Amino acid sequence: MMSYLKTALVAASALTASFGFATAANAQAFYLQEQSARAAGRAFSGEGADTGAASLWWNPAAIAGIETTDVSLSASLILPRGEVANSNTLIRRPGQTFAPVGGDPVTKNPINNGMLPAFAVAVPVSDRLAFGLAVSSPYSFTTDYAEDSWARYTADKTKLLTMDIQPSVAYAVTDWLRAGAALNVEYTDASLSNALPNLSAALPDGRQVLKGNGWDFGWSAGVQMHNEFVTVGISYKSAIKHKLDGSIEISGLQGPLAAQNRELDGVSATFYTPAQIIVGARFKVSPALTLNTQGIRYTWSKFDEIRLGAPLNTAIPEGYQNSWSLAGGFDYQASEKLILRAGVQHASTPTVDGERDARVPDADRWNFGAGGTVQVNPRLALDAAFNYVHFDKETIDRTTAAYAGTAAQTPIVVNGTLRDAKAFIISVGGRMTF
Length: 434
Known about the structure:
By secondary structure, this protein is mainly β. It has a single domain (2-433), classed as Outer membrane protein transport protein (OMPP1/FadL/TodX) (Porin). Helices cover 5% and strands 55% of the residues. The protein has helices spanning 2-18, 37-41, and strands spanning 70-86, 90-91, 99-100, 106-108, 114-124, 129-136, 141-144, 157-172, 177-196, 206-226, 230-237, 240-251, 262-273, 276-284, 289-298, 305-308, 314-317, 323-333, 338-347, 365-377, 380-391, 394-396, 400-402, 410-413, 416-433. β20 and β21 (380-391) form a beta hairpin. The longest helix is centred in the first third of the chain and has 17 residues, at 2-18. It is elongated and about 75 Å long. It starts with a helix and ends with a strand. Belongs to the OmpP1/FadL family. It is found in: Cell outer membrane.
């Protein structure tokens, strides 16, 4: 039984890593920021200081004082590209020396293309009070490594879906101060797998699959201070403690390891997603031109471990560090019916050298955005944006071990590279008032 629990720990370690793989899509680690096509056009600068339902995700104060019902709907097509390449990954089976892990040395485009929707609505109750609701999917992705990939022992297939439901309330306290608060209700569903080495390289690999889901809660709060020329927004999105309940299934092990082939239900995993401290500003420098800026601090150090409940009762370290993003951009009123936008954003990775594996090939990145809005009529506006995200080259170097702490312990010294990584993102949306 003890050797089986050790195997389950290896599986759970893979689970923690899987949550970080959304990184190569766009934002930071497993956070996706495409919650508004309007925001994407200026590379997510100034969102905490803008108004209307489209900015609810970044600051619940954005809807205070609205005069009409405001609806925002958007969708982003995310097209990630890149290579995860082996440099010299080694494996040492019991009683043997280190040997090349083998398998396909280069995996191209391991992250699947995806469509990310977002919806928000805000309804005024009085000239100062408004209620809102935002529905988004901030942590969703799918990865698919081939069964013979060099990374198969640490990454195979991963699916992660989250749904965030954010009911909000906001109030215009004075003519220059807006305040808001929100509850974040999040559903998470995860499924992932990876190969397990048999004791002989001549035998086919075993396999383990983890599944889990759960509902969790957080909160958001913010203010906006504004006059005729400047709006400053400050908001806070809390960290969320997630608990997933699910199962581990292990199959395909042979010889002395065959007794570990089984399915264990009732496994729980607990981890945190980070808080966000958001400071944004919009400067109206002329009747036609508005400059935007925004900085976000992410408390990724909350994701320091994943804690496993009964029957495993242990914790696996992750070692993330706090990170940040900075963005600047502009909105230009080109005509009565056309607004043009552009912006640039830089973000640092929360992953650290020595802890980065094939499920988390994260890197610092630059996000370049351009877009615009067409005012179809006084009540309907259509938004479109294009983003190009460039990722720095980065190492994949997290050493792991199958069957850790047992006589069958099999170290895997990972030595790989994330290279030529980029993403193309096309966002469209509409905003309506009535």
